[in-house]
Task: inverse folding
């Protein structure tokens, strides 16, 4: 058998991506210049969002979106524990606390039924995570939010290009934070964006990206003493994306539908090839939803064999991963008082899940080769 190693995710870069970046290198602007504005316009045109704020990472996008929605000390955020730590960390950055709500056993998405009972007088935001690229149940979640006067910020780090009942990720919540890390639907190397139709979130997130500074004369509270004048109104950060990164984003977003179509085809092939294997479950499909297939997550029936299965796949050069260790298992969160048992469905999901390689440049033969190795690993270890 071939020894070729397949990572679980990988960027797709071609000559046009390289040309876009080189053009910026030869231009007058390396950091915030015309490429940022173009990339933001492209993100809006693609998703249908009214505003985009390009930032330096998905984590910065979450931080800026939460700030934009007014999150502050003493507030609570409701989110899923089946996510990367930054979904919760960004709430802590702002002095808020996190209430973890359990997930659906089949999809790994936050269970809307659990949200209602987690709402307290302090709740400010609901943050669904579009786990693996599947948009969460926004109709139900937005209805709950509306009833309680809360904002919904989507963690769309996995789901740019996915859709929910015909609407693109980016317009499904009050704001969406997305990521352009190399394994994500499109990449800028490091990067992220806040997408929103809300003028206030947009304005606050845009200022937050650059130290809380505004150059908009309409917002000045002091006399405008000259063309150099600007004011800092809130404490912000340097979360700017550079024009180099944005140039890559401009080139990548042109290909996003092609990338997602290929991911979808790969998922279809895996479904066919792995569907009948004893002891394994392939990912659930959700009606009315087109996943972006950021991850292809299979689950083992016998959780005690997951470790052996994972090791076997690694030895067969399949770069499997586990998404995710529930956020509150981490020592930092345990130090804050969170304990195992809080979200039993997410914990069980974590015990069984294995992410297989999925990225646009995998050929049908690659997928067949990986599926063979999965069958072999299942036979040997499950
Ligand atoms: C669900 C989720 N949220 C947020 C992030 C943070 O994105 P970034 O790595 O661009 O900061 C990630 C990235 O791994 C993620 O998977």
Result:
């Amino acid at each position: 058998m071939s020894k070729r190693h397949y990572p679980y995710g990988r960027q797709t870069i071609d000559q046009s991506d390289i040309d876009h970046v080189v053009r910026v290198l030869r231009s007058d602007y390396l950091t915030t210049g015309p490429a940022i504005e173009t990339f933001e316009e492209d993100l809006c045109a693609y998703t249908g969002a009214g505003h985009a704020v390009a930032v330096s990472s998905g984590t910065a996008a979450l931080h800026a979106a939460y700030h934009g929605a007014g999150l502050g000390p003493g507030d609570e955020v409701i989110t899923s524990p089946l996510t990367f730590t930054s979904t919760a960390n960004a709430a802590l950055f702002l002095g808020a606390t996190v209430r973890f709500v359990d997930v659906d056993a089949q999809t790994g998405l936050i269970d809307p039924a659990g949200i209602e009972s987690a709402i307290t007088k302090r709740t400010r935001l609901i943050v669904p995570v579009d786990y693996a690229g599947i948009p969460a149940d926004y109709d139900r979640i937005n209805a709950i939010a509306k009833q309680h006067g809360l904002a919904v910020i989507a963690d769309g780090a996995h789901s740019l290009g996915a859709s929910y009942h015909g609407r693109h990720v980016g317009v499904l919540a009050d704001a969406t934070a997305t990521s352009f890390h190399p394994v994500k639907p499109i990449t800028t190397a490091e990067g992220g964006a806040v997408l929103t139709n809300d003028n206030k979130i947009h304005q606050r997130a845009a200022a937050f990206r650059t130290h809380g500074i505004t150059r908009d004369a309409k917002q000045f509270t002091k006399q405008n003493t000259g063309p150099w004048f600007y004011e800092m109104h809130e404490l912000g950060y340097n979360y700017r994306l550079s024009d180099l990164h944005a140039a890559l984003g401009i080139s990548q977003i042109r290909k996003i539908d092609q990338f997602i179509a290929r991911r979808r085809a790969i998922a279809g092939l895996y479904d066919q090839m792995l569907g009948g294997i004893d002891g394994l479950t392939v990912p659930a499909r959700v009606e009315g939803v087109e996943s972006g297939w950021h991850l292809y997550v299979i689950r083992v029936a016998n959780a005690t064999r997951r470790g052996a299965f994972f090791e076997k796949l690694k030895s067969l050069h399949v770069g499997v991963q586990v998404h995710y260790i529930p956020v509150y298992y981490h020592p930092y969160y345990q130090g804050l008082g969170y304990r195992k048992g809080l979200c039993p469905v997410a914990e069980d999901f974590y015990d069984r899940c294995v992410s297989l390689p999925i990225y646009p440049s995998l050929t049908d033969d690659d997928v067949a080769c990986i599926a063979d190795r999965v069958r072999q690993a299942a036979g040997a270890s499950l």
About this structure: The chain has two domains: 15-253, 256-381.
